Amino acid sequence: MTTQQLVEQIRKKQSFLCIGLDVDLEKIPSFLLETEDPIFEFNKAIIDATHDLAVSYKPNIAFYEAHGVKGWVSLQKTIAYLNENYPEIYTIADAKRGDIGNTATMYAKAFFEDLQFDSVTVAPYMGKDSVEPFLEFKNKHTILLALTSNEGAFDFQTQSVDGKELYKVVLEKSQQWRNSENLMYVVGATKAEYFAEIRKIVPNSFLLVPGVGAQGGDLRAVCEYGMNESVGLLINSSRGIIYASNGIDFADKARFKAKELQNEMAAILKK
Amino acid sequence: MTTQQLVEQIRKKQSFLCIGLDVDLEKIPSFLLETEDPIFEFNKAIIDATHDLAVSYKPNIAFYEAHGVKGWVSLQKTIAYLNENYPEIYTIADAKRGDIGNTATMYAKAFFEDLQFDSVTVAPYMGKDSVEPFLEFKNKHTILLALTSNEGAFDFQTQSVDGKELYKVVLEKSQQWRNSENLMYVVGATKAEYFAEIRKIVPNSFLLVPGVGAQGGDLRAVCEYGMNESVGLLINSSRGIIYASNGIDFADKARFKAKELQNEMAAILKK
């Protein structure tokens, strides 16, 4: 999917909501555990109930890998279900991969070609030659970790590199890489005050913002500082939506929570 | 496996060789492509031919993931084959994962519990709370990226954070984390001169050293600066060994290349 197509979907749906599919067997309704593939059945129900309110879904790959081959099958079925039934949805493999040259190309093939995701999250620590292999894929995005929403973000990301925080150095340098127009960035919502400075460095890039909801960010503050003319934001919510209920009504409750966020987004977009 | 058991194996085999299983279907002998699981058949032959010369094997997870469910099955079969037939071997999942809290725990479970690897490589960018969940697993090691062997290492890792290179800050800070005795570090061999300084910060830690062989590092220089009283080094070679031949003799040729390295290691250990 192109950036332009994503923006069109956002305008059409009046939503820049991304729903994180972090499926934990200990948290989903117990009656699903009797089905053959509880993870896929859960995802299918969540997707069917919320697809008109969200522009994007983001399976967190760890939650699938933890179940080995079985988990990988659930992931394949989930992305195939999305691509077949809701091709307008922008899909993100939240994998946070990062390795050099030929290995990076292998990871890119895994997510862009084998699984047919629109984008994948990537870590910057190994530098340019660990990210450029991802950027070569046409109409695919690479979402680079810049500033994350966890406590550990202060260990290295906000450390000063010759007077400038490391995450800003990541933003600046990566903009010089080949095919950098295919970059988006992960920026945590728990630090809304940083968005103004981030927008000075990457005024046009899309930002994937986790940390609204369960991690405690504030949607309006993020939009005030982080939105650009093409919206430029994908706000992720995972647990706050998908685990709104663990009863028989889980999909309805997920829709209700997604609708609350989409309503807020529509109000912000109208201003 | 404990660090002590690893050191015993190194002394016994007179080898600190790790063989990287970066299995690329375009590079393995073509007759293997007719088998049901070419990746596993290749690994099995390489392992059978070299297990007495190496103390460790390191599947590069990207090369398996690129084949989806099929690749994941090959990975499962490979690690199960190692654990059943050569339990004295130290196994490394070269996955370079890195994510927060509960997601990190999921990745740790995937590699330590589901697949039963002895260790996994992890990226430091997200900080303490992305690494500590891995460190909680007893008799398992977390191998943190410090200084990698690629060109992109100079983009961020060697940048000065208040007068100190970022990779040194990673080494220092991580030593303060809970269960830091379960840490090892990835340090690229292409920069042997750095090993002396690294040993000032982590005198006792094991270092996993890629970049000897195909990437051009020098074994003796690395050992001169990097070895400690418990050896403290695992030297990885991937392509230089496993792709020594792509004919019917590929396993014999791999053994020959592994033996060359092991001979050098034995000579160094005797000094």
Automatic annotation (TrEMBL), chains A, B:
<keyword id="KW-0456">Lyase</keyword>
<dbReference type="InterPro" id="IPR011995">
    <property type="entry name" value="OMPdecase_type-2"/>
</dbReference>
<dbReference type="GO" id="GO:0004590">
    <property type="term" value="F:orotidine-5'-phosphate decarboxylase activity"/>
</dbReference>
<comment type="similarity">
    <text>Belongs to the OMP decarboxylase family. Type 2 subfamily.</text>
</comment>
<dbReference type="Pfam" id="PF00215">
    <property type="entry name" value="OMPdecase"/>
</dbReference>
<dbReference type="InterPro" id="IPR013785">
    <property type="entry name" value="Aldolase_TIM"/>
</dbReference>
<keyword id="KW-0665">Pyrimidine biosynthesis</keyword>
<feature type="domain" description="Orotidine 5'-phosphate decarboxylase">
    <location>
        <begin position="16"/>
        <end position="254"/>
    </location>
</feature>
<dbReference type="GO" id="GO:0044205">
    <property type="term" value="P:'de novo' UMP biosynthetic process"/>
</dbReference>
<dbReference type="InterPro" id="IPR001754">
    <property type="entry name" value="OMPdeCOase_dom"/>
</dbReference>
<comment type="pathway">
    <text>Pyrimidine metabolism; UMP biosynthesis via de novo pathway; UMP from orotate: step 2/2.</text>
</comment>
<dbReference type="GO" id="GO:0006207">
    <property type="term" value="P:'de novo' pyrimidine nucleobase biosynthetic process"/>
</dbReference>
<protein>
    <recommendedName>
        <fullName>Orotidine 5'-phosphate decarboxylase</fullName>
        <ecNumber>4.1.1.23</ecNumber>
    </recommendedName>
</protein>
<dbReference type="InterPro" id="IPR011060">
    <property type="entry name" value="RibuloseP-bd_barrel"/>
</dbReference>
<feature type="active site" description="Proton donor">
    <location>
        <position position="96"/>
    </location>
</feature>
<keyword id="KW-0210">Decarboxylase</keyword>
